[in-house]
Amino acid sequence: MRRWNGWGDDAVSYHVPERAVRFLVELMGPGTPPRDATAGETLASAPPAHPLEHALVKGDAVERLRHARGQSFPDWVALRSGRIPAYPDGVAYPTSEADVVELIRFAQTRGAQLIPYGGGTSVAGHINPQPQGARPVLTVDMSRMNRLLRLDDASHLATFGAGIAGPDLEAQLRARGYTLGHFPQSFEYSTLGGWIATRSSGQESLGAGRIEDLFAGGRLIAPAGALELPPFPASAAGPDLRHLALGSEGRMGILTEATVRVAALAGRERLAVSALFLPDWKSAQTAVRQIVQAGLPLSLMRLSTPVETETTLVLAGHERLIGALQRLISLRGVRDGKCLLMLGFNGQDELVRTTRGEALEIAGQQGGVNVGRTFGSQWYKNRFRTPYLRNALWELGYGVDTVETATTWSNTSAMVEAIENALHQALVPFGEQVHAFTHLSHFYPSGCSVYTTVLFRLADGPGETLARWQALKDAASQAIVAGHGTISHQHGVGSDHAAYLPAEKGELGMALLHDVCRRMDPEGIMNPGKLLAA
Amino acid sequence: MRRWNGWGDDAVSYHVPERAVRFLVELMGPGTPPRDATAGETLASAPPAHPLEHALVKGDAVERLRHARGQSFPDWVALRSGRIPAYPDGVAYPTSEADVVELIRFAQTRGAQLIPYGGGTSVAGHINPQPQGARPVLTVDMSRMNRLLRLDDASHLATFGAGIAGPDLEAQLRARGYTLGHFPQSFEYSTLGGWIATRSSGQESLGAGRIEDLFAGGRLIAPAGALELPPFPASAAGPDLRHLALGSEGRMGILTEATVRVAALAGRERLAVSALFLPDWKSAQTAVRQIVQAGLPLSLMRLSTPVETETTLVLAGHERLIGALQRLISLRGVRDGKCLLMLGFNGQDELVRTTRGEALEIAGQQGGVNVGRTFGSQWYKNRFRTPYLRNALWELGYGVDTVETATTWSNTSAMVEAIENALHQALVPFGEQVHAFTHLSHFYPSGCSVYTTVLFRLADGPGETLARWQALKDAASQAIVAGHGTISHQHGVGSDHAAYLPAEKGELGMALLHDVCRRMDPEGIMNPGKLLAA
Fold first, then answer.
1. Looking at residue B358, which CATH number applies to its domain?
2. What's the number of domains chain A is made of?
3. Total-model pTM
4. Is the ipTM of this complex over 0.90?
């Protein structure tokens, strides 16, 4: 059963080793677990719903609660404290495009707002009803539009209902000999439509590409009509409207079906992951930059700073494995400041062999020590377990959030430093220490993503906890904008980043986005407050 | 000196071998070379210009003539016959962004229309003043905004003035150890800004990507203000506005500078091209599809139908080489219906070796016979000479045009057949035969481009010649649209394809494009009639 106020399946938990708890206490002081509100207490405080009578709409309190919040830190504070500022008034589960058209018409006649809902895994406030809204809010849960509609074998194109979740999509494809290869951290719950609407990027983006590269076309049902995006392999016929649907975040309409570019499964059943340690942060960055700029067809890289490397090893808790690793790398002359680098390969055999050889050679020139595949396999096996750590940390009294951007190589070091510094400074006024660490996990010849995790102590009450988070979020976002990074490489804009969007789109760019949304949704009923602040 | 009424440098000509002339006569009957108007005759008939007095504007007749037409077939008919329906009233050569801003302001105050002009190589009518225009027309020739402005070595990013032409751009990059790798057929004259505005694709798109992949960001100066597009390596921050500038065709403003993703030159100095013959069209298509779907990092493929293969060999006129080739492939059991396949490789040594081995193996499984690198090297050396053939054929009394699209693999065969059939049928009412042949030259896992060349006899007068062309163009365009192809894979929309754009963008999509253009250019002064028919 999926947790209603935390991450994932309630049968799965992440054990934090004793040594790791001591590590956290040393860094930030002891945590005080807050008392979470029960579902019953929370439901009792839910405001009454505006009536939204329609055969497709459910108005019961559990449905409303289950769709009230996503997975951002403020979402967690709301859910765990039971103080949820706004609920949808109803939840609809369309099963066809006709249902979607009908729900939009219904919303128009009732003056209601619509929130498209995929897997509810947003960490930027994409699916939250706006507080203080005077109009009824109808959440449209797309989970029942989850079928494989068409498969074009020759063209490696698969068309799905946009509500299909990651595991179902991969299962359907694998049964037919294909894979999409899109594995965001949220994979277990997030949906194809959500990936497209938020421009998601998967762990294997280096090989498979971002969702932009995989989304060939589809149908977006807007209040103003249907926007059909044909799945051409490429086109020079004017501006590419797919790139308006990508990142549209529910403001323009509801994506009902999407055609994606799939790959043959043979050779791609699983990723082979090698782990290396680089002697320091500078040479580690040089290695990954040179590997990606050499045009080697790897499927994944993930490079941790020294602090993240240490934290990962402590939290992973494989004491014996770590002891062995430590001895091995220290024997080879790598001591403090080492950086963990994971390299992932799949695809055609010979190509993998060549790619691995060349990548390891480049890393070796920077002092990289290959520790083999055991650690990499462990990471690969557990890669969707990491978000469960949030539950465990919360229950120890610690909050965790991640901030992320992308910037050019010449700017990467400075950006990492600026973000980590901003986070370290942000809670000084609160008399609190934070623990912040970073990895680079999406790579391009011109730059990479920067992904920083911050741990901090939860406060006595939800208001104070939220104030701490807000200080961290503001500081990091300002550092990103000031450092000429994008406000999001992979989480999207939602409501949490909307204030920072004008810094990168500019005045004219923002006007264009408003124009496009207005054309698609003249009455402004689609997902208000997201993407565009007003 | 660049030809004013044909392709390229007037010191370069393409010799059509005697055997090839006989081949053309057999197919279409003898050609009757039309008498071309002289530049003097043409200039004498130019209408007087609307006065456009400004320090940056030149109004002399030679400048106006040199910027009146591009390289489409109707452009050639106009230039060769001396009957040019419309001239610009003046030509400006800005040298800075301030000049561009000033020219837009000047146009606004004078009620003039602006046509951004790169290299004048459009084959779809992008830079032509509209006939019957009542407002003065100012062509803005960007050729003096052609400097390398910034080079970010670590990030492999180079920023250029958008007016830089292909050879200058590559020369500047190569002097610093880099290459862009973008080589459209028009490379010798076309410009970076033109590539971006028309979504150009180069011969090595399989390796380097299309211009969409290479264009990281830049500045577009619109009548409504400046649109700054930051060069993030990737972003999830909402819709990607670069994809509005890409394909904007001068309707939204003038691109003044562009940042492109470059690659290290080492290993990419030149392409190694292997030539193969496949036994028939079906197995040849299977080979290229399997190669691209295997994810092999080739830089180029080019596959000709049997008819194009024969035509290429005849027109190339390397009698001895061809004789040897014919004997070789016939010895290996490949006879009639053979298809020429070129495979191009560059980049990191080991990767090239592996890629070549795997690609040749796949082709071999389809009966491909590798004839080595001599023929491929010849093609590579002469790859920018091909457009000169247009001059030679015209002077023999034959017209030549190309039509192109992209479609999915499952649709490729049918599309080739539909286009060639449409072209063969189109001149039946004129009692004329055409010679049509096709190659596939841009490859994607989901499909490819289809590029068809048509030869036909010029008529007695320009009106009748134009009527023949129009019949061919209409027939091919209708076949493309009916067959669910894009109206352009690489030539853009311009005026010649504008009527077919709604078929793929849809009603709502067209409204979005109009909204975007209106926001950027509220008075509608930018390049009217292009991209959007009205």
1. 3.30.70.3450
2. 3
3. 0.97
4. yes
